[in-house]
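Task: sequence design from structure.
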């Protein structure tokens, strides 16, 4: 790993090993908000293809797709993408083509990721492709697998998947136990590759970025530019500080976050947020985000269980809500939620919107205004109303979500920026140019830190902001002339 240290030192970074954490990435100089800490191309990656949607193996695009004529598994959008991927896919294609057509249907993205991993290792060993300090199978070998902490059912699943990989590749230098361990490594270390608006496109393994540890209050953000992972600072990071990103959705109580991290990544987080578990601030956060509101409409209080466990008491005004009342409303919410999900799955969006509106009204009776479940309902309404081009209603729900995002996330979080962007586009579309400028400017201020300024996505946002400013200025001067 000396070569890795040497390469990272030139970038103002170093790898250290701590007893309670294992490998960590530390800074050897100051980094400023918006500055790139590190970027990395995937060692291997695959698009998230399914029976419903397929993507190009090269660029993850969805237009002009054609199946590989030989294996009938992989898709390409152009000869350019096919040529760029051919060196790796040629060996994968040969292996897949030997399978019966029915068996090829069981080749999931996870199986393909493992096939690519071993094919790339073979190509490195055969000197077909070069290795570097920042790109080589030795970096994969150094990743943590947590095999000793995995339950028996998961081990059996990994063994079954490993058998299929072994059957497909038929390489003499690999064994099933090693493949199973690598599946465990992928579960703990692979990242979901997203577009600029954080919509998932595929999965990739980035062994150097995998050294970066999790925090529920991270000093960096991980975004993707095409298939490359880019880590940017979202605050000033001094020399000798640990670099951190978030592995999970951090909107949630400490208990919710801890559960997600333990199930997926097999560790207990001890970041500054999680260290507050059980303290008054943490109890208040949990009650607001995942609990109930005071039934007095003039009170913004949250509820805590009363001492004899017969109901819930408002921390602010002392008003009690009975268990029976809360249970009744919660049951109605559950029923409506199931009905809305069914309508959505049947693509009956008008019925789904109607049900979600009723659900949202009921949640407002039960949940605090900063409730995550209430926010999620509004997000679903926003998405469906946008699809149906009901712009005015969509804007109403978009505006309702922003204060909740600001309560849930730190200032420079991409989701806040993206929500301001959505709000600005809707306002501009509806002719409210002055507010559109304000929203787009807020989006740009956040997203230039998290996304940089050179991607097509950011160039489009900054162009929209300039156009909206010009339009607002013209409207203002026209009004002045009329007076």
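Answer:
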């Amino acid at each position: 790993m000396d070569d890795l240290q040497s390469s990272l030192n030139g970038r103002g970074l170093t790898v250290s090993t701590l007893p309670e954490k294992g490998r960590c990435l530390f800074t050897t100089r100051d980094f400023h908000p918006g500055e790139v800490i590190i970027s990395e191309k995937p060692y291997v990656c695959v698009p998230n293809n399914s029976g419903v949607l397929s993507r190009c193996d090269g660029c993850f695009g969805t237009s002009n797709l054609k199946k590989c004529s030989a294996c009938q598994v992989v898709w390409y959008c152009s000869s350019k993408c096919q040529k760029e991927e051919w060196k790796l896919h040629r060996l994968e294609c040969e292996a897949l083509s030997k399978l019966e057509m029915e068996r090829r249907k069981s080749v999931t993205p996870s199986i393909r990721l493992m096939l690519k991993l071993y094919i790339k290792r073979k190509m490195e060993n055969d000197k077909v492709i070069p290795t570097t300090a920042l790109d080589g199978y030795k970096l994969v070998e150094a990743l943590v697998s947590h095999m000793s902490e995995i339950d028996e059912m998961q081990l059996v699943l990994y063994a079954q998947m490993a058998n299929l990989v072994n059957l497909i590749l038929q390489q003499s230098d690999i064994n099933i136990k090693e493949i199973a361990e690598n599946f465990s490594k992928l579960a703990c270390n692979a990242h979901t590759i997203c577009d600029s608006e954080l919509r998932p496109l595929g999965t990739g393994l980035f062994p150097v970025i995998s050294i970066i540890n999790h925090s529920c209050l991270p000093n960096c953000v991980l975004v993707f530019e095409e298939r490359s992972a880019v880590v940017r600072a979202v605050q000033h990071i001094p020399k000798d500080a640990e670099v951190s990103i978030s592995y999970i959705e951090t909107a949630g109580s400490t208990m919710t976050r801890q559960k997600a991290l333990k199930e997926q990544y097999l560790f207990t987080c001890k970041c500054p947020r999680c260290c507050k578990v059980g303290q008054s601030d943490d109890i208040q956060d949990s009650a607001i985000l995942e609990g109930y509101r005071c039934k007095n409409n003039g009170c913004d209080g949250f509820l805590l269980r009363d001492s004899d466990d017969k109901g819930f008491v408002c921390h602010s005004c002392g008003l009690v809500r009975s268990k029976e009342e809360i249970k009744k409303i919660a049951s109605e919410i559950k029923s409506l939620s199931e009905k809305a999900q069914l309508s959505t799955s049947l693509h009956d969006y008008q019925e789904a919107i109607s049900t979600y509106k009723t659900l949202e009204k009921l949640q407002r009776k039960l949940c605090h205004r900063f409730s995550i479940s209430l926010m999620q309902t509004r997000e679903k309404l926003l998405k469906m109303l946008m699809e149906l081009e009901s712009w005015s209603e969509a804007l109403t729900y978009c505006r309702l979500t922003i204060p909740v995002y600001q309560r849930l996330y730190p200032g420079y979080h991409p989701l806040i920026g993206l929500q301001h962007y959505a709000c600005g586009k809707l306002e501009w579309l509806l002719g409210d140019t002055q507010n559109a400028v304000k929203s787009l400017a807020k989006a740009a201020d956040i997203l230039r830190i998290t996304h940089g300024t050179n991607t097509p996505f950011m160039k489009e946002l900054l162009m929209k902001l300039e156009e909206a400013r010009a339009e607002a200025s013209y409207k203002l001067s026209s009004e002045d002339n009329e007076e």
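The CA atoms of residues 239 and 248 lie 26 Å apart.
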